[in-house]
Amino acid sequence: MEMLLQILVSGLAMGSIYGLVALGFVLLVNAADIINFAQGEFVMLGAFLVYTFAELWGLPFLVAVLLVVAVMALFGLVMERVAYRPLRNTNAVTIIISTLGISVFLQNVALRSWGSVPQYFGQPFGRQMIDLGAIRLVPQHLLILVVAALLVLLQHWFFHKTRIGKLMRATAQDKQTARLLGVNIGLMTALTFALASALGGLAGVLLAPTFYISVEMGVRVGIKAFVASIIGGWGSIPGAMIGGLVIGLVEVLAAAYVSSLYKDVFAFVVLILVLVVMPKGIFGEKVAQKA
Amino acid sequence: MRLLAGRSHRNLLIVAVLPAALALPWLFPSAYSLVLLNMALMFSVVVLGLNFVYGFGGIFSLAQAAFWGIGAYTSALLTTDAHMSFPVGLLGAVLVTSLFGVILGVPTLKLRSHYLTMATLAFGEAVRLVLMNTERLTHGANGIRGIPPAAFGPLVFDTPERFYYLNLAVVLAAILFTVRFRRSRLGRALEATRDDELAAAATGVDVTYCRVLAFVLSAFLAGVAGSLWAAFSSYISPETFDLFSTIRFVAMLLIGGAGTALGPLVGTVLLTFLPEWLRFLEAYYMAIYGLSIVLMLVFAPKGVVGLVGSLVAGLLQRSVGETGRRADGEREQSPLPLGEADRRAGEGSLTGPEQALTPTLSQREREEDTAPRTQDSAPSLQHPAPGAQPSLLSASGLTIAFGGLVAVRSVDLSVAEGEIRGIISPNGSGKTTLLNLVSGIYRPTAGHLQMAGERVDGCSPSTRVQRGIARTFQNIRLFPRLTVLDNVKAAKYSRTRAGLLGTFLQTGGTVEEERRIEKQALEALAFVGLAGRASDFPGDLPYGQQRLVEIARALATEPRLLLLDEPAAGMSLAEKQRLVRLVRALNRERGITVIVIEHDMRIISGLCHQVTVLNFGEIIAEGTPQEVRDNPSVIEAYLGRRSRVRARTR
Q1: Model's pTM, two decimal places?
Q2: What is the ipTM of this complex?
Q3: Cβ-based contacts under 8 A for chains A and B
Q4: B46 Cβ neighbours under 8 A, 6+ residues apart
């Protein structure tokens, strides 16, 4: 029972990470109608950047985190300019492959800058456990849960209460009508890229202390997050978070009770099951399909 | 691009390119680059396969590396653990992958767009994980070692040089097949399905068959490449066949040019050698490689082959401007011309005298057309007496409901052979729905539909085309990426039978059939007066002419019954006059029965023998145009009346 509780906490923590990355996926699916294969690389980049700022440069942890968010947001804007805007009138597959080019670019830049040896980054809590009588918890997992919950609330507030958030939602729902109403579509799409990139970076900051930081971590997280966004329902923001949690839980439960070798298979088994039973995912399709 | 396919160009290609290809192993300085070249050729076979699914079929599949892996593993296991020879391994590989092509192809047909892509993604990952984890069969993560080299009897391809020739032969065969497929009945049908699935079904294309075929062909080629890969590298392991391989294949296809025959080879060679060419950048060469993918897409969104194609086409256009103008001159002499003089002649009333006459119409027809006709003139054919002629199409109690909304309510309709029947109604009264029921796009909730005495209400749209029902669409649905001629040729699908083998081998029967398709398609275009625009794309034609192409496409299916859904919408007065003559001609000269939906009452009066009036999905009147026009309930339906409710229940 105690063990189950521990497993659940770590599953939910991993699931929150997947959910945050999936959220970035979904934002771009809605705003730009593309699948961003570089989303996982944002996580990797965020992890390496916070390591550089806090560990190598010795900046205070919170300053380092803010710097990561700023750099990642800036990177999102650049990526929109380079890899999306010139291609936005071609088809979706071309843009997807273009984001793949960015992904290869980022992986190799990271490889040159930080090397192929995985790095350890312990901030802010290090690796000690908290003993709560029978259960022992990893403080980083609790931090992930708290920050993820805060971010979900924050994005809800941002998209529903602020003017710019509403404009971004309008853009996502119907570009043409939004344009007719005078919304600057290009700017909103660029901001969405910045937001998705910053979210990915933050997920990287949160993930960094639970694993070693490596060039390949982005791919692993990216694929799981993609599956999560499908399970949650294409284009659904709550679906992305729920889907992430489902994948996180399935993964740790399967590793603990079935086989840790097959741990990665289960995410895809769930995907196939969901596609068969609920082809539109848990939350269905938010965006009406443009025929 | 079409111009490049000329016979002289082809000979040039063979004379210049083939010796170069054969000499290539001697031109390569290092053994390493020869290995790379071999890899590029094997990849290009995989990508040529992907081209069938994505380039021609428009299905974004992420399962290609999985098919490749299945092929490699089947062949490797047969030649190692089962001690079979390489040909057996190859055969086993293509059989198993083709089978998986069917397995993936059939259920994914029900899924659309990104769901389909996800299903292929899930399939791809599942295959990799199975390869990784079924250790007893596949040796798991250790992979398979000691795979013997490719050999056909005494012919052993055990060095990179020898293997290169085997590779080259396979690639050339695959490209040849692609070229022939694209110009075949099946290729056009698949491309039509990609451009507009519904319209393809309504012109007789078996959409299901075409899409499964695309999956099988892609899996087949991936299986061949997988078998070669296993024999060439002598060691395989599961991680080669992951999602990133698939995505690299998609990148190769897009950068080379999807839907072209040479694009897969060009893109593959480019992306395989690019990292080598970038090595002078040393540490950052792979990062620049990633950026180059983005840059190539930005500057050549249609791929390298597409870019070269449009550059060449542009140059040719400039240099043959003279000939082009001559072709324009011919166009004006074509039947039913749409030149300026004609438009001027057509100004005035719809029934006014005309100077521009079509040679396809008989002399008698001409006289009739030149004869002045008033708006109220009776149709030139007496409508057949009820019951005198057997009805070609008959509906009884035809009903369809969408949820609670009954769009068509127990419609009884009987259209005699040789008749032109008009269907009119106020907007939103179920005309197009009725047409969709007849052409098979909708299945009725209740009621029967008979065509020439046979029940058709359970048949698919393509089966109904075979039974002789053809249609046009209110909102034009041509295949935008096929030429006008290919649009019409695609409609010959249900009347022809060339299969894959005949297409690949270009057997006598296939060549003969293709000639017949070409001839009949050109005839159909000439009939509507658009022979001069055969090689244009539909999007380059004015609206009215696009409608005529739709009619030509419908005629190419050799229909007995033609359904026209608002054929005159958006047409100029002159074009409308021409349309009336055209429909009359195909009715009289070809004996085609016509059902026409139209809002323009002058067209209905000038064309139809009988008119059926629908209101709120029910028939409220039927008779000659004159009778219908005088019918009080029709007037009421259109104009309204104070005692509307009482009148309707009458």
Answers
A1: 0.81
A2: 0.74
A3: 100
A4: B64, B65, B67, B68, B221, B222, B225, B226, B249
